[in-house]
């Protein structure tokens, strides 16, 4: 029998595993400070991300404050637009803002609370909502950020192109429209505090108070899975009532602000957002493709890049036995047994049969052992000088089994058994 070496046979196997590195070398290549460096790198990356997002939103807020400087000197246009909006709302049969404020004037406490809500809830609520999403709901941050940037950006364009005075300024243009500036009469006023002169009082259309409140409610409802999340709807409802009874916005301002947020939500859906970014970023991608170096092409194949070599993973120990072809097996020749009786087959002369090609006379025929014939009944092969076993047959034919070669090839077929 021929034994096949097994890779798992220990030191006797010719296939050795790669030597493991020494303990000192392992300590030098894997220092103990590597986890600390990795943790510091992650902290630095997170800090840079947070700072970048804050600077992005801060820049948007600075652009928002520049709206007042652009609208300066356009008070007459803003007042005329206010009259047009007032009459247009009457055509739409919207509720009269002055009538709702007249009902709220019966309670000074309610109006004072409304003034404080208008001043102290708008920006703090927006900042708290954005920080909550950025820190604790980071997976939803890209879409929330895109929604607020799109809606606020379009609102800023409308503020600049269409200046609009709030309802509290209408009595100066039309005394028949009874509005009360609750911030001045009851207080507190949003435009009497230090630094309030930077606020754009002619940017009533659209209302970012209502728009951002709808954005915050949408974010809470879509992110959380609690049943209580639906209470967030109260925030835009209360905000819309507050801006009306304080005479800071029209109904139409809130409707357009909410429409901008709704449109931004539709545009930032994954499929639409990918199409939008593909269209808007196509010129930049073309420029980058021109400036970036290209990979060399294969010789004779224009336009085809050189493929990168594939990484070959090391095979685990014991896998070489499955890859290497098995060695030629050596048959063990033992005593042959033959069936004695009339069923013994007659062996004819060896030669090519139908469908085979006759061998070349000048070439050596393939190695083969003479067929084993059954002894005649009552006759002893040893007495006649004939071989009895298959081993003797192969030895007589000149085929050495142990060496795998033949010293003599029989030129005639084996004996014929009749």
TrEMBL record:
Residues 330-349 have a biased composition (Low complexity). Keywords: Membrane, Transmembrane, Transmembrane helix. Residues 362-374 have a biased composition (Pro residues). Residues 85-265 form the Inositolphosphotransferase Aur1/Ipt1 domain. It is a multi-pass membrane protein. The chain crosses the membrane at residues 43-64, 117-135, 147-165, 202-221, 228-245. InterPro entries: Aur1/Ipt1, IPC_Synthase-Related. It comes from the Bacteria. Its main location: membrane. This is Phosphatase PAP2 family protein.
């Amino acid at each position: 029998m021929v034994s096949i070496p097994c890779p798992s046979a220990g030191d006797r196997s010719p296939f050795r595993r790669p030597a493991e590195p020494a303990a000192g070398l392992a300590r030098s290549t894997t220092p103990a400070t590597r986890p600390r460096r990795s943790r510091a790198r992650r902290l630095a990356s997170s800090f840079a991300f947070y700072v970048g997002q804050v600077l992005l939103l801060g820049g948007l807020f600075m652009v928002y404050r520049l709206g007042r400087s652009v609208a300066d000197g356009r008070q007459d246009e803003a007042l005329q637009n206010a009259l047009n909006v007032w009459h247009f709302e009457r055509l739409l049969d919207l509720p009269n803002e002055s009538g709702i404020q007249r009902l709220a004037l019966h309670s000074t406490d309610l109006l004072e609370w409304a003034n404080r809500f208008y001043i102290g809830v708008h920006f703090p609520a927006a900042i708290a909502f954005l920080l909550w999403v950025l820190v604790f709901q980071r997976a939803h941050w890209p879409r929330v950020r895109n929604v607020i940037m799109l809606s606020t950006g379009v609102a800023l364009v409308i503020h600049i192109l269409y200046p609009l005075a709030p309802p509290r300024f209408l009595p100066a243009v039309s005394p028949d429209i009874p509005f009360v500036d609750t911030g001045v009469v009851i207080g507190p006023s949003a435009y009497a505090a230090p630094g309030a002169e930077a606020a754009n009082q002619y940017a009533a259309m659209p209302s970012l108070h209502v728009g951002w409140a709808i954005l915050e409610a949408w974010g809470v409802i879509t992110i959380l899975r609690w049943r209580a999340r639906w209470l967030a709807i109260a925030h835009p409802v209360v905000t819309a009532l507050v801006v009306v009874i304080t005479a800071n916005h029209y109904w139409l301002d809130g409707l357009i602000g909410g429409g901008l947020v709704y449109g931004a939500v539709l545009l930032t859906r994954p499929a639409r957002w990918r199409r939008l970014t593909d269209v808007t970023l196509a010129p930049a991608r073309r420029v980058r493709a021109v400036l970036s170096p290209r990979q060399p092409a294969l010789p004779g194949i224009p336009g085809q890049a050189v493929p990168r070599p594939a990484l070959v993973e090391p095979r685990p120990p014991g896998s070489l036995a499955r890859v290497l072809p098995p060695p030629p097996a050596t048959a063990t020749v033992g005593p042959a047994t033959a069936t004695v009786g009339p069923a013994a087959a007659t062996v004819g002369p060896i030669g090519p049969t139908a469908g085979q090609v006759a061998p070349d006379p000048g070439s050596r025929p393939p190695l083969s052992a003479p067929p084993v014939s059954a002894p005649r009944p009552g006759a002893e092969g040893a007495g006649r000088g004939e071989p009895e076993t298959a081993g003797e047959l192969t030895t007589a034919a000149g085929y050495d089994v142990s060496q795998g070669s033949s010293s003599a090839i029989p030129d005639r077929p084996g004996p014929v058994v009749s």
